[in-house]
Amino acid sequence: MTAAAAELLGAQDWVTDGGLETDLLFNKGVDLPHFAAFPLVDDAAGRALLESYYAEYATIASTVDAGLLLETPTWRANPDWGRRVGYDSAALDAVNRRALGVVRAIAERAEVAQVLLSGNIGPRGDGYVTGGTDPDEAAAYHSGQVRAFAEAGADLVHAMTMTGPAEALGVVRAARDAGIPVAISFTVETDGRLPDGTALGDAIAILDGDAPADWYGVNCAHPTHLQPALAQPPGHSPWTARVAAFRPNASTLSHAELDEMTGLDTGDLRLLTSSTGLVRRELPALRVLGGCCGTDASHVAALWGAGEASSG
Predict the structure, then answer these.
(1) Which of 76, 77, 132, 306 is deepest in the core (most CB within 10 A)?
(2) Contact of 129 with 195, CB cutoff 8 Å
(3) Which tens digit of pLDDT belongs to each residue from 45-104?
(4) Of 26-40, 138-152, 201-215, 258-272, which gets the smallest average pLDDT?
(5) pLDDT for 234-277, tens place per residue?
(6) What is the pTM for the complete model shown?
(7) What is the 3-state secondary structure (H, E, C) of the chain?
(8) At a CB cut-off of 8 Å and minimum separation 6, what does 230 contact?
């Protein structure tokens, strides 16, 4: 953990949110063209819905006496995806800044001692498809969104569902240029490897050897998918001490299987909580825990021991 990570996270644990987009789509019936939640920021009813969503996680953090890490609803708010929903570069810059205002409003009302505001950055492509291979190109591509968050006063930026080390390197470089702390969360397939085939530990080592993130995480994968990456002899996995965040999927299905589904798989809550417990024992630096696709506040509450774990 870097000095910036130690300063931000400290020794306490942090609650973060669940699967925003799948919760909005399947549980709340909100239409999200191209899986983009950020346009809700520009609509009064949408902002109210987002604030209600985040408030559930503020309640969990208060209940378990943890910090609250709030991610902006901007996983799709980059140039390629933004164009598909009608946002040019100026509109994207503005909505990323306003998105930070949405989570700041929650922070001001939350009955939690410590809150971090994180600018959420998604991959240029889809979260299940291997990204580009040029870190410099990725740095230039993501720099506008990173700069918007830095200038709007975010505590950090967090790139989630990274499918390979090259794009992740680019995000870190962009964050260093903007002078803001940065976390990187990779996604893994059922074999514990990134979608581009890189071993999780190797991906972290590549970044640490070039442009280290302040901390790393894993998201959009069931805990049983992460376990193969952890199945190494004790003392042979120094990268595990760099993983501070975990946001699991509810479902044990592969990315390809999930991509073909038309309904929501909320998974087996008992399996999710028990397998997450096993993962937590293997990750000594884990501080941030939430959920990803298929999870809502009930899943995250159960992961924190604040809800009843039962089969989904």
Answers:
(1) 77
(2) yes
(3) 999 999 999 999 999 999 999 999 999 999 999 999 999 999 999 999 999 999 999 999
(4) 258-272
(5) 545 689 999 999 999 999 988 888 877 778 888 899 999 999 99
(6) 0.95
(7) CCHHHHHHHCCCCEECCCCHHHHHHHHCCCCCHHHCCHHHHHCHHHHHHHHHHHHHHHHHHHHHCCEEEEECCCCCCCHHHHHHCCCCHHHHHHHHHHHHHHHHHHHHHCCCCCEEEEEEECCCCCCCCCCCCCHHHHHHHHHHHHHHHHHHCCCEEEEEEECCHHHHHHHHHHHHHHCCCEEEEECCCCCCECCCCCEHHHHHHHHHHHCCCCEEEEECCCHHHHHHHHCCCCCCCHHHHHEEEEECCCCCCCHHHHHHCCCCCCCCHHHHHHHHHHHHHHCCCCCEECCCCCCCHHHHHHHCCCCCCCCC
(8) 192, 237, 240, 279, 282, 283
* Tokens (6 digits) for 191: 């074999």
State both tokens at 131: 């990204």
Q: Which residue has the tokens 């559930």?
A: 56
